[in-house]
Design goal:
This protein has one domain. It is elongated, with a radius of gyration of 25 Å. The chain is mainly alpha-helical.
Length: 83
Amino acid sequence: MNKIRSRNRTTQPAAASKPKKSSGSQRKADVLNRLDDLCERIDIVLPEVTARVAALEHLLLEKQLCTRADLRGAREFVRRQEE
């Protein structure tokens, strides 16, 4: 009986055609790739988060739930916590 091959399966290139990296350099390359992916994700998400914070601050001021001084104080508090 014939086996049904998965359409999703990708074929791996022959090991001889691809030069092997040492395990240390391969791990370093993997870490660098993951770091690049993470940086790209942050670059995508950060503007959205910043816009949402700005919108929330605007609503807080519009509804008179806090003052500009309150917002400045909150930002300063966060900056001190980051140090």
